[in-house]
Design a protein that fits this description.
About 25% of the residues lie in helices and about 30% in strands. The chain is α+β, with helices and mostly antiparallel strands. The chain is elongated and about 80 Å long. The protein contains two helices and nine strands, in the order αββαβββββββ.
């Protein structure tokens, strides 16, 4: 004998509700683990940079998980005071690097080398404050080779395949890239770009 349709419907809805709850829990757990690792790596990276440049600002790393202390080729600490941005930057733009920090695009020069050094970050992560950056804002990048200072020369929105922003034709020394629009749900269709020129007073050793 077949179940009445209303019972079948109620049965399916109950299981569908359980499925949605399980999916929500799984998503929340993934977000928690992702942000925990990112925060722990940022603590580790800033402490490591302080050690490298000789600043005596120790941080207790006993609670930082071993997996985020693995070699991620730490480059330095990127700061934009006007938007309260301070984030460690590492070599590479793969998913692992961008989950823990802001990543240097390997095909572009390193900050202490001649040319346009480019960095990428997630719009819903470390690079979310970029939406409030304006021309004239100052940027600093503290590295083991000294502190480099820049001034924002332009912000623009480009298509994902527009690689001209990585060139040196416009005199940019630093390029920051994230997805756009910032509040877009899903894969964003465009890129938001911040470009800056190096200031002559940068404290840099070659």
């Amino acid at each position: 004998m077949h179940r009445p349709w209303h019972r079948v419907r109620r049965f399916l809805l109950r299981w569908l509700e359980r499925l949605f709850v399980a999916a929500a829990i799984a998503c929340a757990a993934w977000v928690y683990v992702t942000w925990r690792d990112a925060i722990e790596y940022q603590i580790y990276a800033k402490n490591e940079l302080d050690r490298i440049v000789g600043r005596d600002l120790p941080v207790d790393l006993s609670r930082v998980a071993t997996n985020v202390r693995e070699d991620t080729s730490l480059i330095g600490l990127l700061s934009i005071p006007s938007v309260n941005l301070s984030v460690a930057v590492v070599e590479g733009d793969d998913a692992h690097a961008l989950r823990l920090a802001v990543g240097h695009l390997p095909d572009t020069p390193l900050p202490w080398q001649p040319g346009n050094s480019a960095f990428a970050g997630h719009r819903d992560g470390f690079f979310n404050p970029l939406q409030d950056v304006h021309r004239g804002d100052e940027i600093s990048l503290a590295t083991r080779r000294g502190t480099l200072r820049y001034r924002v020369s332009l912000t623009e929105i480009v298509e994902p395949d527009d690689l001209s922003v990585l060139g040196t034709t416009d005199g940019a020394d630093l390029t920051l890239i994230t997805c756009y629009p910032f509040g877009y749900f899903g894969p964003a269709p465009q890129r938001f770009v911040v470009q800056a020129v190096k200031l002559a007073a940068s404290n840099e050793t070659r």
